[in-house]
Amino acid sequence: MVCRPLYRAKRWRLKGETLTSTKRDSLEIGWKEIPESLQSCKGEDFQKTFAEVKNVIAHQLGNSSLKGIKGFIFYGEPGNGKTLMAKVLAKELQLSLFFVDGSVIARELYGQSERQIVKIFTTAGKKRSLILIDDAESVFPDRDWMKGESWHVAQNNILFHQIDDLDTSRTSLIMTTNKFQLLDSALKDRLYAIEFPPVDQRTALEVARMKCAEKGIDSARAEGQIVAEPEAFRSGRAIEKLVVREYIRQIGEGEGNKLRT
Ligand SMILES: Nc1ncnc2c1ncn2[C@@H]1O[C@H](COP(=O)(O)OP(=O)(O)O)[C@@H](O)[C@H]1O
Ligand SMILES: [Mg+2]
Asked: 240: Cβ below 6 Å to ligand 1?
């Protein structure tokens, strides 16, 4: 069972300071401040999708006469690398990242989130930027599905206008979601949807090796578990948890050894 905290705080470290976005509608992050890098992204599927999306955004940047694609929807199970790819795209394309946490904006009071959407698009639209609306299904649910709840309808309409007016020679939009079917179909018409499949075993092993090396631990046992139970480790998040368990275990053993000597 996947347990999600009720109130999820995303933390970012900017210039030695810890910022939390729980009280923020969005956070602007300079591309140099993004810690994730392309080197740490594994898997052929991931690399192929990354190259495609990067090429489209790069092609549109600076080309104001072009009628291009406003952006992308990344969808798939949690932990499949959607947020990771958006961040690394911003970094590699040297774009300011406007990170919007869908679950935060959805909690805002009636009317406020509409103003915030406009503010984010206006601020981002002034520079070379990427707007990332993460976990978007909680904030822009399908109009039929919510039976015309007026607040959401107004909010969605404002978003559609902002997307239609987006100047893709400067700014692109990426939305991520674990629940593609809940997203408003008008969004699906405006943005190009890409599925993020679960990671294959080879990629899972590569990610595990990399994450073990980052933590300075031996990867043999984690790799053994992935081979023994391939279906349990098909998301980056599951592999991350496995590596953390292994890290704690190996440190425990090390401490035990020290105590014994
Ligand atoms: N292809 C990949 N290569 C390296 N790490 C990955 C990959 N896919 C996922 N991960 C890792 O798995 C974790 C979850 O990824 P994330 O992008 O947050 O997933 P999602 O947004 O799809 O829920 C992160 O630590 C990320 O670094
Ligand atoms: Mg995500």
From this structure: yes
